[in-house]
Amino acid sequence: MYFHTFTYALFLWSAYVVFWALRKRRSLRHAALLVASYWFYAGIDPRFVGLLAVSTLTDFVAGAGIARADADERARKRYLWFSLAVNLGILGFFKYYDFFAENVEHAMRALGADAHLWYLGAEHGGPLRYVVPAGISFYTFQTLSYTIDVYRRRVKPCESLLDFALYVSFFPQLIAGPIVRARTFLPQLAAEPLRDDSDVGAGLFQILQGLAKKLVIADVLGAHLVDVVYRDAASIQGAGAPLFALATYGFALQIYGDFAGYSDIAIGSARLLGFRLPKNFDAPYKSKSLEEFWSRWHISMSLWFYHFLYDALGADRRGRARTLANLFAVHLLIGLWHGAGWNFVLWGLWFSVWMVAVRAFRMTALRRSGGKMPASPLTSALGILFTFHVALLGGILFRCTDAASIRASIAVLGDWSQGLPALPWTVWLAIAIGVVSHATPERLDRAIGARFVALPRPVQGAAVALCLYAFLAVTPDRLTTFVYFNF
Amino acid sequence: MKLARILASRTVACLLALCAGELAFDRAGFGTELGYRPDDRLGVRMLANRAQHQGGAYIRINSEGYREREWQPPGPNEVRCAVVGNSVTFGGAHAVEFTWPRLLERLSQVRAAQEPGTRSISARSYAVVGYRLEQMLRCFEDDVAARQPDVLLVALLPWDVAPIDPRREARGFGLGGAYVATATYDALARVANVRHRLDDELVREWEFRRTTVAMDPHGETARSWRAAAARRLAEVRAELARGGGRLALVVLPTLKDLLEPGWFDHAGFWRDWAASLPVSDDLPAPLVIDPLPVFAERQRELTDELRSLGLDPIRAGGELHNPKPDGPLRHLRQALFLDLVHLTERGHQELARQVYAALRDADVELRVR
Question: CB B342: neighbour CB atoms within 10 A?
Fold first, then answer.
């Protein structure tokens, strides 16, 4: 069940009605929401529902165990390692095993050994089709964050399995985030929800924004430009430099529209049910630096890596060399988190190198200038251009799934013999909306939202219908999934 | 909680606005033309109860989603023939009366009137444009088998053994693809007019698979597809036999067969397959109907002329499809082909004659029981 379908609209509406009908009955309300969440997950891939339950039980037990052990540090560590081993074991097996086996097999063959390893995925002769369980990276990180927070005594262990299961599987953010910390979500479960009419309006407005990003920006650019050019090495080669460049800029907007659109719909859906989820995107392409970019792009994941990895490695507290090494490691792992493929490793490496270079440069500049960095409109503009283009060029590595396509991407930049072909008007519309959505000041965005919320309820309903007409008129006929569902 | 609060005014307003739009588009004439909806089993199905004038022919789709009359139980003495196929059998360029299943029916009625004791045929077409063999067989299993036809005619081209295109299965926006059946969908699709590129891609994908068989009919890919198709046909033959029915393959001729004879012995492949199957009273041998020799004979002059022009099959098909008033083809009037694969009315007539003759020759019970 995808967010941008009528089926989801009906599902969300039903969940909304049942949830608010049970407002006064906490356990029933949560049980209904839990059933809805598992139903939602089963609608995407029923085979892996059990994994979600295993992950939930593991961290519930681990959290309770850590709390019970209290002063026994060794026992507390045992429970933490148990959670890490189970969660990362499942994630590693389903997401990375085939990648690992394939490369081991290649290496062994290169050394002359006749290796035939067992695989999980059907494309390698294994038993499973689509081996990566939907949303596994997201819910694994979410449950891990809970156990680590309990271990660090930053959150109290959840006493209700029902509440904890709902925290892990809450359908709006189950498949592709935002990754929510327990201390943000569990207190909301404990309180009785207050039905605030402005929440409904704001939720609807955010869902509409998400649908616009997904259906108008991402899907249009994907169907009519990016996916056509980036289909394979031959199509990249044949596109010529101008079209390839446009497709690459288009991809930057497509991936933003796809993922930010998903996040908006998730946050809006949660708000209809009275829950507040953290912001996940904040106009990332107007970041003035790479650090700022990662605080605006997939914010919940960046914060996870910052809190649970970068911080654990010592962050910037252990000297210049260690800081740079930590930055390098974290961004390499961010790349690998996105997928099991060399292109994701290269993508992570790309950001690692730039992050390290920029941080080293800044450290040196700060030392020489006595702790002050010059700031002007020009440096800001240059910073935005630089940051955007680092992300843009990294996008080529993200989008190309094989070495031949990456090579073709480099080669085609020399071919300026062809002009731009005629493209559907919707492509230019999608690009314009993508640019405008970044250029719009946040206060204007908020003011439009507030104006929508202030509209009489029937007018809001009619406006939703009108927006649906507009979106369906321009979006391609083909229903596409969300890119981040694969992670 | 009161129902009025549950059915909040936003929901009601939104639904009313959507319904008003749908009504307005419906009144404006949208949502009546031919179209497809997604289907879990078949990839796509034709939308039911639609009608459209298309290139001079009137096409009406019945309540089951086929270009056929509404179903009525056949007469007691009629041989029940079900035809599954693709655009060749669908015959979108002609009135339904001039498509070969209907002509087969009429031919049998004429013969039945002339030869007392001969049963007429009730032929129902379940052909859908773009269907491949797997879709045709699923169509039989889902919609035809329960009606226990005496004969199932599977009309297939060499490349129909290619698998179903998965991209076609992803259309629509949920709720069982109900949206694509609305006037709103039709209106937005036609007004925005940007969906053609995607259709182009679908066609390209289809062309690619067709080309795989057409370019390399003896290659590993084509052979594996044919092997899978043979297994499925054997299953269908057994299912048919349980209801007392018999399987007949109509190996459709193409212009490529005429211009490049021997590029692939399509009928020969299925004849060998039929001969390899066990035969008993319960499992009669599949009938393989091969109209190619007669087509080749009737098209000899035209074929020679096309060959003399140095045209490959696709370009030759284009020449037939869009003949210039002062074009070079002197024998155009005798053409049985409309293009590379589709048939003219004369082609449909000839095919119907061949199928009828084959059914008579093959001891299908055309005599009154």
Answer: 24
- Lowest mean pLDDT across B115-119, B238-242, B364-368: B364-368
Nearest CA in chain B to A15: B6
Predicted confidence (pLDDT) at residue B168 exceeds the cutoff of 50 = no
**Inter-chain contact A465–B13, Cβ cutoff 8 Å?**
yes
pLDDT of residue B288: 94
| Residue B367: count of CB within 10 angstroms of its CB | 12
Catalytic residues of A: 338
User: pLDDT-based confidence at B8, cuts 50/70/90?
Assistant: confident
Contact A476 B198 (CB under 8 A): yes
Number of Cβ atoms within 10 Å of the Cβ of B318: 14
Which tokens in the block code for residue A440?
Answer: 């719009």
Q: Identity (one letter) of the amino acid at A131?
A: V
Q: b/e for B131-154, b at 16 or more Cβ within 10 A? A: bbbbbbbbbbeebbbeeebbbbbb
Largest CA distance in chain B: 82
- Whether the ω angle into residue A424 lies within 30 degrees of 0, i.e. cis, is no
Residue with tokens 């993200």: A398
Residue A6, pLDDT score: 85
Residue A4: list chain B partners with CB under 8 A.
Answer: 173
Q: Which residue has the higher pLDDT, B354 or B31?
A: B354
Identify the H or E element spanning A63: helix A49-69
- Substitution target in A215, A272, A478 with the highest count of B β-carbons within 10 Å is A478
Whole-angstrom distance, CA of residue A214 vs CA of residue A476: 11
Flag if A424 and B184 touch (Cβ within 8 Å): no
**Helix/strand number for chain B, H first, E second:** 14, 9
Question: Chain A window 207-226: which residues touch B at a Cβ cutoff of 8 Å?
Answer: 223-224
Residue A479 to residue B173, Cβ atoms within 8 A: yes
Task: Measure CB to CB from residue B172 to each of A10, A466, A479 and give the nearest one.
Answer: A479
| Predicted local confidence at residue B31, as pLDDT | 80
Residues on chain B touching A457 (C-beta within 8 angstroms): 8-10, 13
Q: Residue B167: which pLDDT band, with cuts at 50, 70 and 90?
A: very low
Angle between the A161-169 and A49-69 helix axes, to the nearest 10 degrees?
130
